[in-house]
Each structure stands twice: as structure tokens, then as C-alpha cells.
Design brief:
- This protein starts with a helix and ends with a strand.
- By secondary structure, it is of the alpha/beta class.
- Strands 2, 3, 4, 6, 7, 8, 9 and 10 form an 8-stranded mixed β-sheet that branches. A 5-stranded mixed β-sheet has the order 12-11-13-15-14, with helices on both faces.
- The protein contains 11 helices and 17 strands.
Length: 441
């Protein structure tokens, strides 16, 4: 009887007391409704769940009894009971909102037909009837949060209850299929295994779902954008490698950055690689940025320095993304670790160079902390990018652009719950210090 009571106490101590989380779209900042009617339209068709029943139930390691002790150790895996509502419907809702945010479509609907069950004529008729150019279907192959947990109870020892948790990670796998009126045009299984150290095990699963749908949006963007004429602006970037990345890894890094900016504002970055011996700055990137500003960018371009420096909260470091730049500047620092630089760090800092500001939306690349591997700008910062996209980098801004950006910043100041007031003030001050040309006066 005693052992049963102890086991019950142990089980309760390991169990999550969190109520089931609803599966809500991760992009919470509403996108303006203006749509380009020349863009294609898409319908999200049937999403199906192909996971075995035992996987949907989740799992936990067994209880082990010893002399005067009880223990449970191993990976805990969420089941569907950890989420409120239908999981597949939640996945589809998030996919829809993500495709809306992408800006690649004039209309994003949900439809109930199954493209896989239709022949070519039936599929063409279904799309025409719904006034759609594309239909997207999917099968869910994996959806879970995973976390190592260790609990031990030894009444005969000081500190007789011990509980340890590893970082939570989400594991999501979805097979997507995109159709046009002639049949399937693209299919891919997107797998995400993402660690969310500051999140619960359930939130980690939702984060991985969000990242999976953002990868979907990027893949669909690459396909759809290639079918319409676009005017891409190319910006040269001197990549100063103080991390031994090498030319190929540096090129891949800048390619990842370009993938985001090309979707958001038709901007591409062309890397110009150079080995760099940065000054010692073990805990703070500010001296590195000061040294970097002594290096001239290529005409009309930026400089990004890749260097090793401290990690974590340090006085004066504006955020936890381990990078630093100044609004409307031309130089940025990004931290490397084990010959790796996170693309999100460079995307974030290049955003500041283009006038973007910190926001509270954790799913935006301009959130001040890297709590989520976001690859979308929020609507405010996308508007800023588009307003300054055609600036001549390194030259005075036109009075028209200064006035347009100033109006955007002042309007954003009315929403301190969404936009960081101090950062917004600093960015507006930086804008007002920029020399203006006579153009647009």
C-alpha cells in the first residue's frame, strides 16, 4: 500500500498540470487585407492524420522501484490529449494564416475536396468552381513535444525529492502536396525537430508546427514566385569571416538571409567573402562593431562581421540574438559558435540596417529575443522594408522617404504593447539624423 501511495505521488509530480493548449495560428498580428488581384489564389484542401493510434497517445518512461527509492527517467512525449481541439484542423488553420502572411496569394481559402481522389478533369473543375489556381493537401506524419525528465524520491536521504528537466523540443513532420488544374506540381515532406529551451513541452510542439508551416510557405513561394516577373534588387555584402566558416558556409548563410528578404521585399544579398581577424571582445559585441565600422562596405552595400563573443545577458546588449547593429547603418556583427552562425541573427540585424524595429510578436524576426526560429517579418516591419527598399544605400535619403518612414514610426508609437517604445524612439532619432537629399522635396 505504501509503495502504491509513493508511486502515485511520484506520478503526479511528473505529470504536467498544464491544461490542454489550443492550436492557434502562430502569426497573431493581423495582416492588412489589401491584396494584389494579379496574384494566384490557393485553397487548403483536406489534411489527413496518418499517425498510428499508439503515437497519438503519447508516452512516458516506466517507474522503477529500488530499496527505499523510486525513480522515473527518460523522454516524455506528448499525446493528442495535450492539445485542445482537433490537431489536424489546427495544423490547417496555421498553414492558412501562414500563407496569408506570405503575401504570395490574392486569396487563401479552405476547401473540402480531396485532390488526390480526383482525376485531371475533376480537379480542374473543382478548382475552377472555387475560382482557385492551386490546391494544397497534406498528411500529418508526426506531431509531438519531447522532453527528458528525471524524478527520484529517496526518503532516507537529504534532498530526498529530485526533479530535473531537459530542454523541450518539438518534432513535427508533414507531407504536403500542391496541385494546379493539371495535377500535382510539388510535393515534399517537411520535418522539423526544434528545441525550445524556454517553452513547455506542449509549446515546443506548437513551435515546431509553426516552423514547419513557415518552411511550407517558403517552398511554395519559391515555386509560385518563379512564375511571375519580379524586379529583384541585389545588395552586395562584405562577409568578414572571423569564425573560420569558410567561403562556402558563408555563401550558404547569406543565401538563407536572402531567402527571407527576397520573399518579404524582393531583396537579394550578394556575398563578398573576406577572412577577418577581429579584435578580442570576449563578452560584448560593441567593440567589435566599432572596429567593423572602420571597414568600408562595397558601394551600395553592407558589411557583416562574424565573430566569437560571449553568450547570454550582458550589460548594454540590446537583445539575446547575439548580434548588434545600428538603425540605418551599414555594419552588423553576428556571433558564431562552433563555426556556425544562425541565419536569424543576420536577418534580424539586416532588418535594423533597413530601419526595422523591435516588436513583441514572438513569431517575427524582429522580436528582441530568439525564442522562436521565425522567418517572417511582422506587418509593421514589412511595411518599413517596402518603404525603404529602393533607398540608395550610403547616400542621403530623399525627403519623401524620410517623411514616409517618420509617419510609420509615429503611427506605431500608439501601440506600445506591440512595438518596443525605447527602440522605436531611437530608430526615429536615427532617421532624423540622416542627411536628406533634395529629391522628393
Amino acid at each position: 500500500m505504501v509503495s502504491r501511495i509513493v508511486a502515485l505521488v511520484f506520478t503526479l509530480s511528473c505529470a504536467s498540470t498544464q491544461a490542454p493548449l489550443p492550436i492557434l495560428p502562430h502569426l497573431t498580428w493581423a495582416t492588412p487585407v489589401e491584396r494584389d488581384p494579379s496574384l494566384p489564389s490557393i485553397g487548403l484542401a483536406r489534411f489527413e492524420d496518418t499517425r498510428p493510434i499508439e503515437v497519438r497517445n503519447g508516452s512516458s518512461p516506466g517507474i522503477q522501484f529500488g530499496w527505499f527509492s523510486i525513480r522515473r527517467e527518460g523522454d516524455h512525449r506528448t499525446g493528442d490529449a495535450a492539445f485542445a481541439g482537433d490537431l489536424v484542423m489546427g495544423l490547417r488553420r496555421d498553414a492558412r494564416e501562414t500563407l496569408v502572411r506570405s503575401g504570395d496569394f490574392s486569396d487563401v481559402q479552405t476547401v473540402e475536396f480531396d485532390p488526390l481522389a480526383l482525376d485531371e478533369a475533376e480537379l480542374a473543375h473543382a478548382l475552377s468552381s472555387a475560382q482557385l489556381d492551386y490546391a494544397l493537401s497534406a498528411t500529418l506524419d508526426e506531431f509531438a513535444g519531447v522532453q527528458y525528465q528525471s524524478f527520484s524520491m529517496t526518503p532516507m536521504r537529504v534532498g530526498w525529492i529530485r526533479n530535473r528537466f531537459g530542454p523541450a523540443s518539438g518534432r513535427v513532420s508533414v507531407s504536403y502536396r500542391l496541385y494546379d488544374k493539371k495535377g500535382i506540381v510539388w510535393s515534399e515532406r517537411i520535418n522539423t525537430d526544434h528545441e525550445s529551451p524556454d517553452a513547455t513541452i506542449v509549446q515546443a510542439a506548437l513551435d515546431s508546427m509553426a516552423i514547419t508551416n513557415e518552411a511550407l510557405a517558403q517552398a511554395v513561394h519559391t515555386l509560385v514566385a518563379a512564375q511571375r516577373p519580379r524586379s529583384m534588387r541585389v545588395i552586395p555584402v562584405r562577409v568578414l569571416d572571423g569564425c573560420d566558416l569558410g567561403r562556402k558556409r558563408a555563401a550558404r548563410l547569406i543565401a538563407e538571409v536572402s531567402r527571407v528578404f527576397s520573399r518579404e521585399a524582393d531583396l537579394l544579398f550578394r556575398p563578398e567573402y573576406q577572412i577577418w581577424d577581429p579584435p578580442d571582445a570576449p563578452w560584448h559585441p560593441a567593440p567589435l562593431l566599432d572596429a567593423l565600422t572602420q571597414i568600408d562596405p562595397s558601394e551600395g552595400g553592407f558589411v557583416v562581421g562574424l565573430a566569437r563573443f560571449g553568450k547570454g545577458q550582458t550589460p548594454g546588449l540590446p537583445d539575446d540574438r547575439y548580434g548588434l547593429s545600428r538603425s540605418f547603418g551599414r555594419h552588423a556583427i553576428a556571433r558564431c559558435e562552433s563555426r556556425k552562425v544562425e541565419p536569424l541573427t543576420v536577418i534580424h540585424e539586416f532588418g535594423h540596417l533597413m530601419g526595422a524595429v523591435h516588436v513583441s510578436d514572438r513569431a517575427s524576426v524582429m522580436h528582441p529575443k530568439a525564442v522562436f526560429d521565425a522567418r517572417f517579418f511582422d506587418p509593421l516591419n514589412r511595411r518599413i522594408l517596402l518603404a525603404i527598399r529602393d533607398r540608395e544605400i550610403g547616400r542621403p535619403l530623399s525627403r519623401e522617404v524620410i517623411n514616409r518612414l517618420g509617419a510609420i514610426y509615429r503611427a506605431a508609437s500608439r501601440f506600445p504593447d506591440k512595438v518596443e517604445p525605447r527602440g522605436l524612439e531611437l530608430t526615429l532619432n536615427a532617421l532624423e539624423r540622416i542627411p536628406s537629399s533634395k529629391l522628393g522635396q
